[in-house]
Specification:
The chain is of the alpha/beta class and 320 residues long. The protein contains 11 helices and 14 strands. The chain starts with a strand and ends in an 8-residue tail after the last helix.
């Protein structure tokens, strides 16, 4: 299959922000593949498309890196599997025992590592970003001291955090949700590729589309011993009432997707709802926050908060 590659120089901050964008190119079908890569001369955004990218798509791409002050450079990729080529730019990531790789690097993990295949594509969460790797590291540290029976991953993206949670807590009942139905389908495909069992029994993962925690199954399974929410700072604050309410007393909440200047407001939003900050990652740019629930959980409060947030579309707030 032929394809096209558009490139644009960018800063490290722009590369990180592009990686965190939930839907950088809404309305463009088929969805292009966006990759942030470090080159010999700095950072670069790479856009892979099946056909010659139209002007509107290139303008949206250029808006991701205003520092470049230039138009994207576009080149043809004849007789190339463009998706595979885009994945080739993603290096394997080792996070403790977890080895995250694409199909191109399959079979290269060391003895004792847990290989997880996450291909570049339509959902965020390949392990390349500090937020994802920070969540994995935090979950591994917690697993040494606390065994979780019920786990929730809000904004699962590719499904990576849910898959890692399954390895750390193989008998847990895991629920993973995402606002984007396409991301849920990607996560289901990734579960199949990694032989992760899907279903509603202990030791299985349920994948579903939902805004925040607004879903009957999420409510029915509450409270949760462990909750992940690796999204953005705006939605984290907006969803604080409902997400806090589904964490079990003594349970843990791992939050990421926020920048250092946004941490104070996120911490305040959850501290006000019975959660105590017990760990903050040393990564100054993209902190990962770990809370422990000191107050009681409340399924009724979670439902009430989720309905209010859904009505106000709070999960779509991307700024503070």
């Amino acid at each position: 299959m032929s394809g096209h590659l558009a490139t644009l120089p960018c800063t490290r901050a722009e590369a990180d922000a592009a990686a965190l964008a939930d839907e950088p190119f809404p309305g463009f079908e088929p969805a292009p593949t966006l990759v942030a890569a470090e080159t010999d001369s700095g950072w670069e955004l790479q856009l892979y498309t099946e056909s010659l990218p139209e002007a509107g798509l290139l303008a949206a791409f250029a808006a991701l890196a205003p520092s470049s002050g230039a138009q994207p450079a576009v080149s043809a990729l004849p007789d190339t599997d463009w998706v595979t080529l885009s994945q080739a730019g993603l290096e394997p990531v080792d996070i403790g025992r977890v080895h995250v790789h694409t199909v191109e690097q399959a079979g290269r993990h060391r003895p004792g590592q847990w290989p997880v295949r996450i291909d570049a594509g339509l959902a965020f969460g390949t392990g390349q970003h500090a937020t994802t790797s920070g969540c994995v590291a935090a979950a591994a540290r917690l697993a040494r001291r606390h065994r979780a029976r019920t786990i929730l991953d809000v904004g699962t993206g590719s499904g990576l955090l849910a898959f890692v949670a399954h390895r750390l807590h193989p008998r847990a009942r895991i629920t993973a949700s995402d606002l984007d139905a396409i991301a849920v389908e990607v996560a289901r495909d990734n579960a199949r590729l990694n032989n992760v069992p899907r279903g509603r029994r202990p030791g299985m993962i349920s994948l579903l589309a939902a805004p925040g925690v607004e879903h009957a199954l999420i409510a029915a399974r509450a409270p949760y011993d462990l909750v992940f929410a690796n999204i953005l700072a705006g939605p984290l604050v907006a969803l604080a009432p409902s997400v806090s309410a589904v964490v079990a007393r003594g349970g843990h909440l791992i939050l990421a997707g926020l920048l250092q200047p946004q941490a104070r407001r996120v911490i305040a939003a959850y501290s006000a709802r019975g959660l105590r900050l017990v760990q903050r990652s040393a990564n100054a740019e993209w902190p990962v926050l770990v809370f422990r629930k000191t107050g009681p959980s409340s399924r009724r409060a979670a439902l009430r908060g989720a309905r209010r947030e859904t009505a106000n579309r709070g999960w779509q707030i991307d700024t503070l």
